Amino acid sequence: MPAALLALSAIPVIAGAVRMTELTGGAAITADNARFFAAPLPVVLHIICVSVYSILGAFQFASGFRRRRPGWHRVAGRVLVPCGFVVALTGLWMTLFYARPEGDGDLVAAFRLVFGTAMFLSIGLGLAAIRRRDIGRHRAWMMRGYAIALGAGTQALTHLPYFLLIGTPGELPRALLMGAGWVINLAVAEWIIRKRPPTRGIRKSAYRGRLSS
To answer: Is 154 exposed, middle or buried (0-12, 13-18, 19+ CB in 10 A)?
Structure first.
C-alpha cells in the first residue's frame, strides 16, 4: 500500500514542483498563473505541506515499518497533523479568494469547499479521537483525511480516459471528473476501514495496563 500511495502522491508533488519552479524562476505571468504571482503565500504553503503530507503519510500505512520503529507513527503524526490542516485551509482560501481558472465553474468550487472542509474536519476528529485514546476512530478519520488529500492524484487518472477518448472536458465534465477523484478515494478508504477488525477496546485496555504498571 505505501508504494501505491507514493505513486499516487507523485502526481500532485510533481505538479507542485513545476508550479514552485514557475514562481521562483521568473516565469512569464499569464492568465493561467497570474493569481499565484499576485498572492504566492497560500499556494506555496499548500504545495510544501501537501508534498510532506502525502509522502510522509504514505509510510503511516507501512505496518512492518511501524513495528520496527514504534515511535515513528507518533513523531510523524506531529508533523502530519499541522501539515494537513494547512493543506485544507489553504485549499479553501484559494477556492474562495483566487480568481477561478478557465474551465472551473460553480460546481468545481463547491466540490473544493465541501471536500476541503471535510478534510479539515476529518483531521480534527482524528486528533480528538487519539486524545481520548480511541485508536479505531483515530485511524478511521485520519485515513479519510489522507484520502481527500490524495484527490489530485486520482483526479489525474479520472481525467486521462476522457482526454484520450473525447478531448478537453468542458465545465460540467471537468467538475464531475474531479468530484469522482475524491469520491473514489473516500470509497476505498471506507472499504479499508470497515474491512479491518475494531481495535478500540484492545488498545484502550493495553493503555490502561501500562498506566497501572
So the answer is: buried
Which tens digit of pLDDT belongs to each residue from 49-76? 999 999 999 988 887 777 787 788 889 9
- Whether the CB-CB separation of 61 and 80 falls below 8 Å is answered with no
- pLDDT (tens digit, 9 = 90+) per residue, 131-184? 999 999 999 999 999 999 999 999 999 999 999 999 999 999 999 999 999 999
**DSSP for the chain, written as a single string:** -HHHHHHHHHHHHHHHHHHHHHHHTTPPP-TTTHHHHHSHHHHHHHHHHHHHHHHHHHGGG-HHHHHHSTTHHHHHHHHHHHHHHHHHHHHHHHHHHSPPPTT--HHHHHHHHHHHHHHHHHHHHHHHHHHTT-HHHHHHHHHHHHHHHTHHHHHHHHHHHHHHHT-S--HHHHHHHHHHHHHHHHHHHHHHHHHSPP-HHHHHHHHHHHHH-
Listed by start position, the domains of the chain span 2-212
- Round to whole Å and give the CA distance between 180 and 73: 30
- Provide the whole-model pTM: 0.87
